[in-house]
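The pair is quoted verbatim below.
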Amino acid sequence: MDYSTLISPALGILVGALMGLTGAGGGILSVPLLVFFLGLPIAEAAPIALCAVALASSIGAILGLRNKILRYKAAGFMALFGLALSPLGLWLAPQIPNAPLQILFSLILLYVAVRLLSQARNQINGVPEENRKPPPCLMNPAIGKLQWTLPCARALMFAGSIAGFLSGLLGVGGGFIIVPALKRYTDLPIKSIVATSLGVLAIITGGGAIFSAASGSLNVLVAAPFSLAALGGLLIGLLLGKKLSGPHTQLIFSIFTLAIAISLLIKGVLTLNP
């Protein structure tokens, strides 16, 4: 009996709940959970993770459009360059041995975990954010839209390209790149940043999932139950999120992510040097 069809929905619910509680960043744990519990290589786990993130982020993006907080032009512009580089990452992943790919993923996961841990501690302790110079992408209050300039377009193009490449290579979605980039390069409010990042993710990961299915690298028997369960978990997470403290939830999530990253790094190093 293939137990992956039983385990994958349970993992999907967990990933979806984490996304509902912590935002798009929760999807970054999809790949390590699939690696640990199903024994999949990263090149096979990445397309499955893309399906789950695509489905969940699409729901969030639709809600953002309905509430008129998603900057669809910025999302489309970033996603355009992300889509261009996502197939390159998907093609490159099977060409790289699993152990180095696993080590690369664990290092990125470590970076995300440390960053989230620092942010959560600062919020809990009431540490104010550092003052910064005006970003290149500014809202025009008269029309309620971003003012497009060359520095603005260049910054968003770079962020979208990196997010697209890493989403294809590692199945991480790219929310951990897009959200900080929008915080740094725009003066959008946080709700608009989250909604816009979900719009970018929905397009990039959706395109990556379609490319994976077309190229035959997607394990549909695992991806379908995992993705549908993630959607159910997302709704559970959103309900729980209304009752839990945001900073404390992020603190727990960052510690959990840190533990997963260290375990994945050790596993990758041991595989590299048996």
In short: The longest strand covers residues 138-140.
